[in-house]
Every structure is written in structure tokens, then in C-alpha cells.
Amino acid sequence: MRPLTQEETNTFFDKLSKYIGENIKLLIDRQDGTYCFRLHKDRVYYMSEEQLKIGSSAAGECLVSIGSCFGKFTKSGKFHLHITALDYLAPYAKHKVWLKSSAEQQFLYGHHIMKSGLGRITESTEQYQGVIVYNMNDLPLGFGVAAKSTLACRNCDPMTIVVFHQADTGQYIREEDTLT
Amino acid sequence: MSDLDTHHTQTGLVTKRLFIGGLSSDISKDDLIERFSKFGKVDNVKLTTRLDDQGVPVKSFAHLDLEGEQSKLKKCFDTYQNTKWKGSCLKLQYAKESFLDKLKKEREKEDVPKKVDASPAAVKPPDISDIKGPAVPGTPLPGKTDWVVGKYGRVLPIMNLKKSNKLKVVKHDPSKLCHTAKIFKDESLDLSAPCEKLTWEIDTPDSDITKKRKGDFLVTQSVEKVKKHNSTMSPVPDSICRNNLVQKQNINMPMKPAYSAKNQSPSVLDIPEFKGLQMLSTNPVDLKLSLIEDSPSLDVPGTKLENKSLTRHKNMPLKKNDFKSSSTGGTTTDLTIFENTSDSISPTKTQQKESNCSNSSPQNKTSQNKRNLNVSPLGVGAQSEDNGNDSASSADTDEIIARHKKKCNLSMQSSLENKLTPVAQFKAKPLPSRSLNSSLSDNSLYTSECFTYSPGLSDYSLPNTSLAKRTLEDSDLDSNDLELVAKKLEQKETVFKPSIVKASPMETKAEQKVGQISTTVKENCESVVKVMDCEITEKKDKKASDNIKRLKAIRETSKLKLKQQMVIQKALEHVDSKDFGSVNRTVFASDSEDDVDDGPTKSFSEASEIKTSKKSKDTMELFGSSSDSESDYEEMFKSKPHFEGKKGEQLMKMERNFGDSRFKLDAKFVDTDSEEEEEKNHINEKSSQDNDLEEEKAASLRILENVIGKSKLDKFSEKLKRNTKYIIDMNTVRFDPTKVLAQKEVQTKQNLTSGKIPLTLTDRANKKSSLSQADMRKSNREEETNKTESVTKQKQLESTKIETCTTETKNKSKISDPESDTLLKTKDTSDNAKNAAKSRVDKSLLNLFISKESEKDENNTQVFSLLDQFGNISGDSSNESDIDTKAQAIKPKAVLTGLFKNSQDPKTKTTKTSTNSALNLSDQPRKGNNTMSDSEDLVNNTMSDLEDEMDDDDLSEEDSISELADEKEVKKLGLYEETDQALINAGRIDIRYTREEWRKHWEEIRPTLVKLYKRKHKEAVKNKRVQNERKRKQDFLKNVKNRNWRHIKK
């Protein structure tokens, strides 16, 4: 377990900023305590100071997880968000997509979102902007990447993909063994 | 190979079939014949040429039979082998037999075995060619029972062998066994060292080890060992030993007169004789015997000794000393005298023995002396052994362990002395330097001499028997009559002790080698036994051998015991070493005690004893002191754990300052502020960790800046500042009542220092504060007013501090009432006392300082002041209105108050002025005078008496009205405060006023109230909208949080 290097932090924040923009600051600079990101086994964990203190006493090999996992660095150095970060990102979401209840299950099974399933979308969402997917009851379901901008969405075919699937809460079941 | 055609002929000619290879293709048969005919007769030439597919000859070779002498054949090979002939290299070989020849031969051979059988020369090993099939090892030869084909194709006989020490005949089949046979190469058998070198010798034949190997032991060592044994007595538990000795001494006392001279003064040798005689006279049998024994015949000693033993037998029941009996023996003959002397000497140095011997010798007749000498060694041995045993038994009464040790030690001593004494007598040389070997040789010499002197061995053997008997008796006595034996033996011990003391200087040395003693002693014993054995075998005396065997047995048993005791001793040593100091000390102590008792009689030994004892004491002291001092120093310089560290420093200082060196401060005296220090350290650590995290945070923020862009981030952070309250950490949100209160308080009273807020807050106050908080948020202006209020409030605070207690309580009481807001409303309507209201609002902030008692007091004052106020401003009606508004809702009132404040803002400046507060101050004392009396009266009254108090209040009210009427306008502030308090008791007031009065009030107030209500409603709607918004946001956050929990549960 170690702090992220500058490069790692860059890539990590780059990714996060796609979803929550400058709200990252709220994760780093919190009023209710000191929180930090730590890298452990290529995974980035977000934890409070207390957790860090407790966790630092554990041997690296033994430590399965600490705090909540935000994602992992791939071997090529890219960062993948995990669904476990949803709780921290959803409140600060910049761009949101609401799904119709019919498309909800499809998304939760790991499919992309088609225009037919799109209930609402935040205005001024650009193409390839990270979005947080909600159902119509404002329950966050996962992450996605806007395949088309809001404007483009309006004019497109109902079967075109509007949002690429990134992570969904269904992964808690599907990838139970790999999620940390 | 044997199957090649080698036909030995009588002429010496050999016919060989040759193979000639590597011929060129153009060589004919004739050429070959021509060439090989030089070496013999060539016959049956066969030339073969191999052709390839095209018919071109590839190679050709020839076979031919060459008949000639062996040498010629060889020459042929030499000349033609690898020589070139017509361009090709010749190769000669003996050819294999031609197939046809083979066949032919086989046919012939079928008849051969028969021929062999028939022939009488079958002794020869049969030829392998007899076997039809392949000559596999192990195949028996046909027709031959005991022949078998061996490994290498040889035919070998099967043999029937008989092993050297066994009856069984083993069949030896070479075909089976020869496989296992190994061929040893020369190297493996080659021995690195010659045979001479296998035997070895030690170069120094005189070294100790070699001597020991040969069975020779140094006398010096043995002597030392003897002394060691003495010393080994010391490890016996001190207390026990001492007790024993004391007892012995006590018992000895009565006996002393009789034996002291005999036992303890070796110098006076005559006395024992006489005494012994005297003793004998008591015993008629002994006397007779002694008379008989006086004759110097050689036979006598034996009989004497027998008699002795008999006398012993008699003596025992008579409760007489062993020593006595022995001494009786001594008196009968000179021998016993010698015994006595030797007895006294035995544990001492050999030199002393010598001197004793010399002493004794003049007294004895020369003729007798010789004879005595013959017997004496054994006698002495017996005596000493007796003593040893006896002493041991004495100890037995007291302590088993002690006894065993002594017994063994002494017995060993005696055994050694057996050898030593004769040596001393015969050689008259200083023994200490002599080796045991020499002593043994001397012993043998002596024995031979002894036998020359003594006509028969019977003399010699008899003492032994008597000795054995004695020992047996002793053992019996051990079990039977312990007390008696103890008595006897104690005396003997006293005899031994001086000698021990004499030896003490040596003991000190000997003690060093205590550990080795047991084994060496055993060896000595064995050697002695051996010597004895040898002697006896030489003499071939049956009796003697028997006796010696008995002796052996005795010694063996003693050895066994010794072993046991060594074990016990070791075990005890561990225990004792802890309890008592050094081994030295105990020994000397016991000795010195003996000295004191025996002192007068022992003139000779005394001096040395005292010296040694003194020495020992000195050494003891030295040791003790040194060790003590050492330990002291160690303690002094030992680092004390409680003086380490910062705490330790403090402690050291404290101790130094304390002045008394006897008083030592230990860790208990350390102040507890060390804990604080620790905490501090902890905090420091924490802070350092925090610093790290802070740095990390800063770094990550920097990176974030890069990622997002500084301007964007700055904007965001600004935005954040505005809406910080909306950002809540879902993970840490928990209901914390104290926190909530504190937050609200902080928000409501931003200017109040939190430290001044008491913990006892009434619910009302909370409610009010929350309401006022809501109001304050409404507008910035309001905040401003708050600020100004705070200023005034502070001033007031100061003033109140200065004021007397009574006034203080009054003020506070006025301020404290949460209903003051409602009162304010009423005032507002009447537009009478804006300034007062202002100040009241200020004072409402001071609510928190109220104590319950003050509230009580104030209740009275309130009533009074309320009336006063109502008197001024249509008192009753206002009261009514207050109650009504209260009933309607609290919120609107709060709103109103807020509004009221706003309206008041322009006038706040005036109220802010110090003059106002000064007025307050000036007014209040007056009021205080009035109220003081009431409050003082009421302080002790309970709440249940309040009604009655009210009446009293009424009276006081009237007084106050008259007073206040004059200064109404100035004092309004104070009045309003009082009315605020009065509202608390509104219920009671209701009762007091009539319905009509209330209605009157109500009608007066109503229009204003309606107006106010409308305004309030507007505000409320606005509020609600805002709140709804907020709620929605909060709900969303809650949802998120719930989801979190759900996930976690999953």
C-alpha cells in the first residue's frame, strides 16, 4: 500500500474528472476528516485517515481491501473505474443519464444504453463524457460514457447506442470474486 | 581358443589355417602358394573375390592351411602383416575353422567322452568340449558328478568343505561362488603403515597416565584423597553437623574423665595403656585374656584379636565403648597401644604417623614391635574402620546422610591407612612424596617381611575375621542400639577431630579436588584388594582368601553406599550451597567448637587448630566483607531503571532535593504529568502523520489543478465556500445531540464565545434559539443588527458584571424568558418601547447564563414588572394578546421578532450607545431595591407557595408602579425585561384577571396581530419553499446513503 505517484494521480484524476469534474476536490479536501487515495495491488483505494492507520499495520500480502476501491490501473497504465466507486461519485455527478425502467435491466446486465432506453440526459453532455447512470427513481446504477452528445442524441435512431457501459451495480453479483 | 585347429604333433609342426585379407584382385592362388610356401607347406588354398554390381572386384581374400613350425608361422606373420603386395595391404589372421571341418570334428567328438570315461585318467579336469550345448556357467559336466563349468569357461570341481568351528559340511559350488569372488588389486591390499607401526608406546614411561594404566597410583595423591575425605565430611548440612557435635559433646562430658586422656592426647601413649588395663580389670574375661596374651608368641595376636571381638560382643550389651574394647586389646598387648596411636594418627598426615610410630616404638619391646608391626596395619585398619563405622552409626542416630558420608569416608580412610601405616613403619620415610605404587610395592615387601616374621598366616587372617565380625556387629548395633552407639562413637569422633584439624591446611587443598575423590578412592580400594588377593594367592591360604573375600565384600558394599551418598551429597550440596556460605566455613566452625571443648587436654593440636580456625575466620570475614562491599558497590553503580528518561531526571532532582540519603525515591514518586507528555508525544506523532497526509493532499490538489485547470478549480472552491453546508459526508453522518445543539448555538450566537455557554439549557431556550436562527438567516441586515446587538450585549455583559448580584439576577431573569419575543410583539403594537425591545433582544442572547434559582426569583419580579408595564401600556390586554399569540404559534412570533428587529434597526445605533446601558445600570439599582426585598423573601419559598407569593408581588408591583411612573420612558428597557419574565407565569396571571379584562386586551391587540399574522404567513410560505428545496436535497443524500448501506450489507 502506497500513495499514488504523480503520474498515477494524473491519470486517476483525469479519469475521475470525466465523471465528477472539479468535485474531486471534495473527495480530497473534506471537511469531516482527512481522506486519501492509496494504491494497493494496482488498485486505488479511497480511505479515511483512521482506516489508513489501521490498514497500514497489515501486511501487504494479507490486505485484500481497505476503504473502498475506486478502480484499478491496467498493465498499460490506464485507469479503470470500478463500480465500488459509484457511491462516492454519484453525489457529485456532473452529467447524468436516466434510464427507462425497461432498459434498466439491460444496463445492469452489462449492455450499452440505446436511445430507446434513454429516459433523460443532462443537458450539454458532450460526446465521450463520463456519465453516471440513474434509473428513473434517481438510484445510481453505474457509470457510462456518452456515445453521443445530448444534441446528437435527440436526432439519432432509437437503436443507436447513446451511452457506453462502463460499470454497473450488477457487477456486484457478476464479478463478486474480483471486486474488492 | 581351443577350438582353433591346433594340432600338436610330435614333430613340432603346426598346421594353421590362415586368413589373408586385403589382397589385390589380380593375385592368383599360385602367387599365394609361392609366397607362403617359404614358411611351411601350403595347402587347401581358397581365394575369394568379391565383386560389386558392375562386376568390378571390390576386395579379395584368401584362406590357406599352412603347416609348419610355430616359429615359422610367427615369422610369416611378422613378414607379411601389413605389408604391401601389388598395391594393397596384407592382413594376416588365423582363420576360423571351416564349417565342414567343424562338422567333421563334432562327429568325431561324439565318441570321445566314452573314451574318457573308459580311461582311468579321470582325475584330470575334464575338458569343456565334453559339453554338448553352450558352456553356460553352472552346467554340470555330463557323466561327471562333481564337476561344473565355472565362470570363465573352466571346469571346476564341487567341493565339500567343513568349516573350522562347525560340524556341518558345506558344499562349495565354484560356479555359484566364483562370481562373487573379487580380484583384489595390489593397491587395496597395500597397507600404508608397516606392522611395526601398529603397536605403540608412550615415550615417557614415568608419566602419571602410564603409571595409572599400569595400576600405579601416587601416594601423595592418595594422602590428599584421605584428607579430601575428611573434607568431604564438611558438605554435610551445617546445622545437622553442629547439632550432632553439640549433642556429642554433651554426651561426652560425663565420659571424658575416663577417656579424654586416652583418646585425645596422642602424645601421652602410656595413659591409654593403663586406662585400658583398668578398663580390662573391670572385665575379668578380658583380663585373663590379656594376661595370656602378654606372652610374645606369634600365635597370640590372632587369638587376641578374636578375643577382642568377643570382648566387643560382651561390651556392647554392657554399653561400653568400642574404643574401650579395642583399647583393652591394646592393653593386653603392645599392639593395641600401637593401634591407639595409629588410631589417633590415622586421619593425620603420614609424617605425623611416623612420629607417632617413632613415639610408640620406644615404648614397645623390639621383639614385640616386629610382631606388632605385622599385625598393626590390619589392626589399625580394623580399628580405624571400626571407628569409621562407629562414628557413622553415631551420626546415624542424628542424620542418616551424615552417617553414610562419614562411614564411607572413614572406611576408605582406613583402607588406605592399611597400606600407609605399614609403609611408614617399615620404611620410616616421609610418605607424602611417595607414590602409591611404591607404597604398594612396599606393602608387598612388607607382607613378605610380615610373613617372614610371622610364622603362620593364621595370625594374619584372624584379625581380618575379627574385623569382619566387628563390622557386622557395628551394623547390628546401628539398627539395634542407636543411642548407645552414638555415645560411643561421638567420643571417637572427638578423637578424630583433632587429627582433622591438623590436616586442615591440607584440607583446603584437598577440598579443591573433592569431585574426584570418589573414583580415586574406589581405585585405591580396588588396588588394595588386588594386593591382598595377590598375597593370598601366593600363600594359597584358604582362610586368608576367605577373609579377604569378606573384606572385599565389605568394601564393595561400602563403595555402593559411597555411590549412593555421592548422589545424595550432590543433591544436598545444591540445597546447602544456597542456605550456607562456603564449605570451608562450616567445617572450621565445627572444628573450632570441638577445640573449645577438648582444649585443655589437647595441647599439641590446639595451637594449630586455633591458627587454622583463626585463619578460616579471617578468610571468612574477608570473604564476607569483600563480597558485601562488592555487592554494595554494584548496587551503588547499578543503573536504576526508574531514573531513566525524563521522568527519571525529575525523580533524581526530587531525591537530591529531599536531602535524606536514607530515603530513596522510586518509580512510584514520578508525577503523573508524564502521561501528559506521552499524550503530547502521541499528538506530535499524530500531527506528523497529519502533516504527511496534508502534504499529500496538497500535492494531489496541485495535480488536480493541472488536470482540471486552476481557474475552474478556484471558481469551484469559491462556490464550495458558499454551499459548504450542503456537502455532508454520508459515511460519518450520525445523530449527535451535542453536536446539533452546538451547531445551532454557534449559528444563532455567532458572536458569543462558546466557552461562556453553560451546559444547562432549557428546552425553551433551544426552541427560541432555533427560531431566532431561522430569522437571522433571512436577511443580511438582520446579521448586521445582530452584530450591533452583540456589541451592546457585550457592553451589557460588562456592566452586569460590575452590577451587584441582585441586579445581575434581575437582568438575567428578564432576558432569560423565551417569551420575550411575544412581549416584544405587544410592545411593537403599542410602539412604546423600541429601545427597550432592542436591548431586550440583546439580552435574550444572555439567556444562557441563567440559573434556575435566578429564574425563580425573577418569576416574582416578572409578575411585578409585567403589571407595571401593562399599567403603562394597557397592561392587561397586552397580557391577553401575549397568551393568544403564544397559543397560535411560536414561529410567527419569531418571525415577528425578526421583523421587529428589522424595524428597529435604525434605532439600534442609539441603543448601542453606552449611555443606554448606563441608564440601565442606573435604573436597575432602584428596581433592585424594590425587588430585592421580594426576592429575598422568596428565595426560601418553594414553587408550591408561588400563588401566595403572587399576592405579595401585587403589593410590591403597586409600589414599583408608582416609582417607575416617573422614569417610565427611561426605564422601559428594564420594564420590558420584567414583563418577559412575567409571561412565563401567564397561566397564573390569567386566573387573576377577569374575562372582560382579557377581552379588552385582545380587542385592542387584534388588528395588529392580524397584520402581523399575514406578514408572518408570507414569510412562512417563503420559508417553506426554501425548506422544501433543502429537504429534497437532503433526501437525495439520504437515499444515496441508504444505498451505501445496502451495498455494504451485500
Automatic annotation (TrEMBL), chain A:
Gene Ontology CC terms: nucleolus
Xref: Pfam families: pre-PUA_NIP7 (PF17833), UPF0113 (PF03657)
Subcellular location as annotated: Nucleus, Nucleolus
Chaperone among keywords: no
Example GO molecular function: RNA binding
Alphabetic keyword roster: Nucleus, Ribosome biogenesis, RNA-binding
Domain of life, source organism: Eukaryota
GO biological process: ribosome assembly
InterPro entries per record: NIP7_N, Nip7_N_euk, PUA, PUA-like_sf, PUA_sf, Ribosomal_synth_fac_NIP7, UPF0113_PUA
Gene3D superfamilies from the UniProt entry: 3.10.450.220, PUA domain
Domain PUA: start-end pairs: 95-170
Annotated function: Required for proper 34S pre-rRNA processing and 60S ribosome subunit assembly.
Family membership: Belongs to the NIP7 family.
Quaternary data: Interacts with pre-ribosome complex.
The protein's name in its UniProt record: 60S ribosome subunit biogenesis protein NIP7 homolog
Provenance organism: Biomphalaria pfeifferi (Bloodfluke planorb)
TrEMBL record, chain B:
Subcellular location as annotated: Nucleus, Nucleolus
Entry keyword RNA-binding: yes
Compositional bias per record (Polar residues), positions renumbered to this chain: 334-375, 384-395, 916-938
Pfam families reported in the protein's UniProt record: RRM_1
Sorted UniProt keywords: Coiled coil, Nucleus, RNA-binding
GO CC annotations on file: nucleolus
Compositional bias annotation for Basic and acidic residues: 608-620, 635-647, 679-689, 775-801, 809-831
Region of interest called Disordered, as start-end residue ranges on this chain: 110-136, 295-396, 589-647, 671-695, 757-835, 900-938
Principal subcellular localization: nucleus
Recorded GO MF terms: RNA binding
Residue stretches in coiled coil: 1014-1043
Domain RRM: 16-97
This protein's name: Nucleolar protein 8-like isoform X1
Protein source organism: Biomphalaria glabrata (Bloodfluke planorb)
Lineage, uppermost ranks: Eukaryota, Metazoa, Spiralia, Lophotrochozoa, Mollusca
Gene that specifies this protein: LOC106060716
